[in-house]
Amino acid sequence: MARPEQVLLLEPPHELKFRGPFSDVVTTNLKLSNPTDRNVCFKVKTTAPRRYCVRPNSGIIDAGTSISVSVMLQPFDYDPNEKSKHKFMVQSVLAPPDMTDMEGVWKEAKPDELMDSKLRCVFDMPVENEKTHDMESNKMMSSSLLKSESSTLPLKSMSSTLDDGEVKKIMEECKRLQMEAQRLREENKQIREDDGLRMRKSNVLSQHSSIGMKKDEGLSARAMALIVLFFVVGVIVGKLVL
């Protein structure tokens, strides 16, 4: 039996576009609208869960309202020859009038009651002179999650989404991991410089030591020559006296 048509309206409807550079978190928004007179439960799934943070990734959309889902792509090494195969799916089901447990709704839902929409991911790397501007725009978009469209939702819809404090914690954790990686790179560079300095000092000390040994050998040779000379002079003087 074919699944029913998706009742939610998605914007964008078919693809999520992420604009580089991808050395920092890149955020794009997906708007979900419920034009029906029934509350709708939804879930957002992806084929690459380790590469994305999705907030909120599930919840309830009240009749006649909409929410904004933030999709955050984690930093990675961009390869222009590699096409993105990542996909997202928005799954939904009509909420029962007497619903008390959203997880229970998903468990009890029949296959012919589930609706879904699929979106593909597109990576867009800007030209060189636009990279700085786009990096700043991505940071501003990530920091403006608190001011997203979801702030216009009724209180009942907001209670089913993730609170702003948890979104802030996720963004701070991403930034902390990036700073930690930078710190480790700097420490590794400093260790290499210290090793090079110690090797140079060791070479200088070795040179000084070899010069000192040569001087000591020269002094020893002179002392032996003087001793032999004094011995010969003593023998000659002794013979003259006798």
From TrEMBL:
Keywords, sorted A to Z: Acetylation, Coiled coil, Endoplasmic reticulum, Isopeptide bond, Membrane, Phosphoprotein, Transmembrane, Transmembrane helix, Ubl conjugation, Unfolded protein response
Gene Ontology cellular component annotations, sorted alphabetically:
endoplasmic reticulum membrane; plasma membrane
Indicate the segments annotated as coiled coil, or none if absent: 167-194
Spell out the molecular function terms from Gene Ontology.
Answer: FFAT motif binding
A Gene Ontology BP annotation from the UniProt entry: regulation of heart contraction
Q: Where is it localised? A: Endoplasmic reticulum membrane
Span-the-membrane segments of this chain are 223-241
Kindly give the membrane topology term recorded for this protein: Single-pass type IV membrane protein
Domain called MSP: residue spans: 7-124
Entry-linked InterPro entries = Ig-like_fold, MSP_dom, PapD-like_sf, VAP
Q: Any idea what job this protein has? A: Endoplasmic reticulum (ER)-anchored protein that mediates the formation of contact sites between the ER and endosomes via interaction with FFAT motif-containing proteins such as STARD3 or WDR44. Interacts with STARD3 in a FFAT motif phosphorylation dependent manner. Via interaction with WDR44 participates in neosynthesized protein export. Participates in the endoplasmic reticulum unfolded protein response (UPR) by inducing ERN1/IRE1 activity. Involved in cellular calcium homeostasis regulation.
**Similarity annotation:** Belongs to the VAMP-associated protein (VAP) (TC 9.B.17) family.
Protein name (Swiss-Prot/TrEMBL): Vesicle-associated membrane protein-associated protein B-like
Identify the species of origin. Cottoperca gobio
Which taxonomic lineage is given here?
Answer: Eukaryota, Metazoa, Chordata, Craniata, Vertebrata
- Gene this chain is encoded by: LOC115008555
